[in-house]
Amino acid sequence: MDRIRNFCIIAHIDHGKSTLADRLLELTQTLSERDMEAQVLDDMDLEREKGITIKSHAIQMQYKGHILNLIDTPGHVDFSYEVSRSIASCEGALLVVDASQGVQAQTIANLYQAIEHGLEIIPILNKIDMDSAQPDVVADQIVDLIGCDPDEIFRISARTGEGVQPILDAIIDRIPAPKGDPDAPLQALIFDSVFNPFRGVIAYFKIKNGMLRKGQAIKFFNTGQDYVAEEIGILRMKLVPTAEIGCGDVGYIISGIKSAAEVKVGDTITGKENPCSEAIAGFEEVKPMVFAGMYPVQADKFEELRAVLEKFQLNDASFVYEPESSLALGSGFRCGFLGLLHLEIVQERLFREFDMDVITTVPNVSYKVYTTQGEVMDVHNPSGLPAPTLIDHIEEPFIRAQIISKAEFFGPVMKLCLDKRGTLVSQHYITSDRVELNYDMPLSEIVFDFYDKLKSISKGYASFDYHIIGYRSARLVKLDILLNGEPADALSTLIHEDNAYEFGRKMCVKLKDLIPRQQFDIPVQAAIGAKIIARETVKQVRKDVTAKCSGGDVTRKRKLLEKQKEGKKRMRQIGKVQVPQSAFMAVLKLD
Length: 591
Fold this sequence. Notes:
Blueprint: E1 4-11, H1 17-27, H2 45-50, E2 57-63, E3 66-72, H3 80-88, E4 92-98, H4 105-116, E5 120-126, H5 135-146, E6 154-155, H6 165-174, E7 187-196, E8 200-209, E9 212-213, E10 217-220, E11 226-228, E12 231-235, E13 239-242, E14 244-245, E15 250-254, E16 268-271, E17 290-296, H7 302-315, E18 320-326, E19 330-337, H8 340-354, E20 358-360, E21 367-371, E22 376-379, E23 391-406, H9 410-419, E24 423-431, E25 434-442, H10 443-447, H11 450-457, E26 463-474, E27 476-483, E28 486-487, E29 493-496, H12 497-514, E30 522-528, E31 531-538, H13 554-574, H14 581-586
Parallel strand pairs: 1-3, 1-4, 4-5, 5-6
Antiparallel strand pairs: 2-3, 7-8, 7-16, 8-15, 9-14, 10-11, 10-16, 12-13, 12-15, 17-19, 17-20, 18-19, 21-22, 21-23, 23-25, 23-26, 24-25, 27-28, 27-29, 27-30, 30-31
């Protein structure tokens, strides 16, 4: 055990985590030059295209007789759950900061998480070869943040490989070896899992106490199911089978589990003959922030979608779902996500990996509704809201947002937060030109486009992180969209009273452009209860029925037009309006 080191790399998005991981793999010769490529651990096409890490990736390296288990983590706020799992299975962390951008919000959030778990922090200043780098200024920020000695900060360029070699020695010298008792009953934490169509579920784990041998009878602590360890091994770029895995090490297990529901990330693996007395603690349950409905495009694909979501959840433990049905879209699932980027990624992955095309409704958050009878209801969907006469008051989730920006964008950032119903909690200058703002804001206001707007008004410099602080009472109303007098339930939203008129008007204007014209006029209306607050009309397509009357009396033309008008009126009574998928998505981008 003295020769094992488990560590992760934490940083803000785009500060060079995956590139640094590439250099470490090269220096330890884990990969041959022929297999090497940029961002080698980002194995999804989607990760390469977007240049972001979506999943944490574990890999084992060997250096100077030591075993180094690296877990590369995502940097985006929507994937912070992956980071929490990686931190729970490590003893040390490399904190990477971009020398040209300085300390940013996720850097701080991830750092605090690592410190809470008692990890040893190794500070690294990356991208010192760039023209815009300010290594001394950023080094001072790091010293302020973690109180280390300026000489302890490694100055590197992960792209060129300059200064990376000493980090490997520091990992061995400064990160403690895992603690544990090899003779105690087996106790291993599952920190990730994937589904393989041929082998079943493959679970990745870290052993805290005891050891695991091939063929051993094991049990999952929380689910109580028992299995046989058919194959165990270590994680290189490919899975490498071994006969046993010792205490403190990281590996994988295949035991022929066919059902995805039997493996829970965060569960504890123990021996069947000599089980441990308690599960490993310190693993937080995921709390989805954004909810949206997912429905199959063809109604008969419902069961297929269920099977796909079950397999997908294995690979992405922060994704949750439950069945629901909608008047307009039939049977589908209510899904919980950590944020909008997460929703977009899930939709894209379902299509690419499982060839599953889904319709997604407007995302919203969950509210607590207090009724006049004194009951409390959790409402995820505006259509589940009770009648207005039965509602006493509604509470919505609030967040504490931490924004770090250059001082010159201080004004626009404050205006954005105030427009989103934010209240300033504190502000302080980290350095002379960097300011940190803390706001309390409703989660529903940041769900749509807050992050994008923040990036554009600050020219990409501001960074943003948040955590939930509880529920607060709010004046919310249900805004319905009526198409030809029929409510389109997939488009209804819960919105603050003050913003309802503006939002309703924008929705009507947008839908007028997106709904295809029919043979009859379609009124598009926004309504709160029975009160119409905005209206637009999609004009009908008309045939020139008077074309054959070249001349003659005007009454002949009138007669034909009246006849057409009657037909249109009858058609409107039985006409159904189809809402294209683009209309659901356009609601998100109302600006």
